[in-house]
């Protein structure tokens, strides 16, 4: 099975565990590349026969049958061809089943490569974010010392903005974990008091 190779395109080597520097730093060029990719993905989706977009109305139906083996389809086709009376209720369309099998066999590799591509694109996205945020934290730590000087009040004010934005809205595609609720403590049951013996 062929795999998608994820490589860093750079005139120089990466430093440490950080991605290598860009061969071109123009924001407009990057936006053009992103648009070309999104347009290409849209065009690819149109090539898929009977492309089905995930929706609340269909995801429950798909999930219900997702765990069953594709081989069960082949077995039922063989069983009906050998015993036509098995399909007397006309619940199984052999021709449609053959077409679905052909699609499943052909697109198994596509699904694997798309998953690998998605994983590597997301990792590239967060690697670039890490490379940009790392010096922010370093400069912020240095700036806190500078901001203690009364003559650098402007530095302290701007660092407050940085501090605010460090924990800003989460990145698209990620979910911020909700703080766990503390369980309510139930007081221990009181033992009935036994009256003193006379």
Question: Would you tell me the overall average pLDDT?
Answer: 82
Strand count, sense and closure of the main sheet? none
Distance between the termini: 90 Å
Total number of beta strands: 0
Share of helix, binned: 55-70%
Helix and strand content put the structural class at mainly alpha
> Taking Cα atoms only, what radius of gyration do you get, to the nearest Å?
30 Å
Q: Which regions are unreliable across 5 or more consecutive residues at pLDDT < 50?
A: 1-13
Spell the H/E element sequence.
Answer: HHHHH
Apparent shape: flat
Sheet-strand content, in percent, reads under 5%
The total of helices stands at 5
Task: Kindly describe this structure.
This protein has a domain at 27-129. Helix content is 56%, strand content 0%. The chain is built from five helices and no strands. It has helices at 27-47, 56-65, 71-82, 94-147, 153-166. The radius of gyration is 30 Å and the shape is flat. The model is unreliable at 1-13 (pLDDT under 50).
